[in-house]
Amino acid sequence: ARTCVQECAVGSAVFDAMFNGTLATRADTVELPDVEPAAFLALLKFLYSDEVQIGPETVMTTLYTAKKYAVPALERHCVDFLKSNLGADNAFMLLTQARLFDEPHLAALCLDTIDKNTAEALAADGFTDIDLETLGAVLERDTLRIREAKLFQAVVRWAVAECGRQQLPT
How many CB atoms lie within 10 A of CB 87? Predict the structure, then answer.
């Protein structure tokens, strides 16, 4: 039977380098401080059995882990899960994550959803949490289906939230 180390090394070039490369660790334990336990468990399950175990609560951390440890097949499963769960209510949050994780196809789908359901997307909780760069990318589009006055009101809501994050007066 293969060991966990062997299975990880076969399924991930990063783990292979960690365990078998010139900089391989000889420690009894390997710490992965920036990986969530549920995401790492999903990664291990995938490497051992090709079983995909992701859900709304773990998909982002699993995607991060799959990217970090170079497991493209699991990355694709995570992105496909996000695509199948994309809606106006989470399009801005997913757009931010798609840009962060360099997933241009997912980002394009998010923008298309925002274009078609602009008012609903702007009313969603996640809108006021987006970063300035993402806001700018959306505002420069001429395909949004909303009146400019309503768009302006949404941007003011975002600005108030951003002032709160920056601890600035509103």
Answer: 12
Residues 104, 111: Cα–Cα separation, whole Å = 10
How far is the C-alpha of 38 from the C-alpha of 140, rounded, in Å?
38
Share of the chain above pLDDT 70, in %: 86
Q: Which residue has the tokens 């336990």?
A: 37
Give 106's pLDDT tier (boundaries 50, 70, 90).
Answer: very high
Please state at what angle helix 72-84 crosses helix 91-100, rounded to 10 degrees: 160
CB of 19 within 8 A of CB of 11? Answer: no
Report d(CA 126, CA 148) in Å as an integer. 20
Give the span between the Cα atoms of 130 and 142, in whole angstroms.
19
**pLDDT (0 to 100) of residue 2:** 52
DSSP string, 2-60: --HHHHHHHH-HHHHHHHHSTT----S----TTS-HHHHHHHHHHHHH------TTTHH
